[in-house]
Design a protein that fits this description.
mainly alpha, Arc Repressor Mutant, subunit A, Tetracycline Repressor, domain 2, 10 helices
Length: 212
């Protein structure tokens, strides 16, 4: 397997979450999404991405040095969009965070991009789950930690280290998403979401005795 086709660690990626993407960036990311959904990560090339985006190969290479860094940014964008689309606009910080995680997990399970990666590039997913934190996981931990801090401020989330708690939330949600099909005979999609909601609220909820 060529290393250029494996999503790279955070230090290698060029585009940061604070940089607003240009129209060209968006076109390239959209083209990359098409390619990964159709071919998987391993068979996606920057040449094909450039062709579909209607730009030259040097235009792509100036922004992303390899397929891995491009796919890493694509998945960060995909996950951020999913969280933004599923986050409730009302309720306590805990209710909004749990709603975003459960709703986001359901969308990921139905998302053709992630479905293709789960099917065609299982080894890549295993690398990030069992060997190192990927860029996408770090981005989610940051998002979750910010929400936890907000919840600790409004009293809906118990005391604790926000980043450690966020990492635990990701472990729980990650398992629910990646193992959903395995447990489908006893835990269908509707009940998985229901039980995950209970689990997350139970983990985050403030103890009535806390602060007394």
């Amino acid at each position: 397997m060529s290393s250029s086709n494996v999503p790279t660690p955070p230090a290698v990626a060029i585009m940061t979450s604070t940089e607003p993407p240009s129209a060209v960036d968006r076109a390239i990311l959209d083209a990359a999404r098409e390619c990964v959904a159709e071919f998987g990560v391993r068979r996606t090339t920057l040449t094909e991405v450039a062709r579909r985006a209607g730009v030259s190969r040097p235009t792509v290479y100036r922004r992303w040095p390899d397929t891995g860094s491009l796919v890493a940014d694509l998945l960060v964008r995909e996950l951020r969009d999913i969280v933004a689309d599923t986050a409730p606009s009302t309720g306590t910080a805990r209710e909004r965070l749990v709603g975003a995680i459960v709703g986001g997990g359901a969308m990921i399970r139905r998302n053709p991009l992630f479905a293709k990666i789960f099917r065609a590039d299982t080894d890549i997913m295993l690398t990030y789950v069992f060997e190192r934190l990927g860029r996408n996981q770090r981005a989610l931990i940051t998002l979750f930690a910010d929400a936890i801090r907000e919840g600790q401020g409004d009293g809906s989330v118990r005391a604790g280290d926000p980043e450690q708690m966020a990492a635990m939330l990701l472990l729980i949600a990650q398992s629910a998403v990646q193992s959903a099909s395995t447990f489908a005979p006893v835990l269908d999609a509707e009940h998985l979401d229901l039980e995950l909601t209970h689990a997350l609220h139970g983990y985050l909820r403030r103890d009535p005795e806390e602060g007394r």
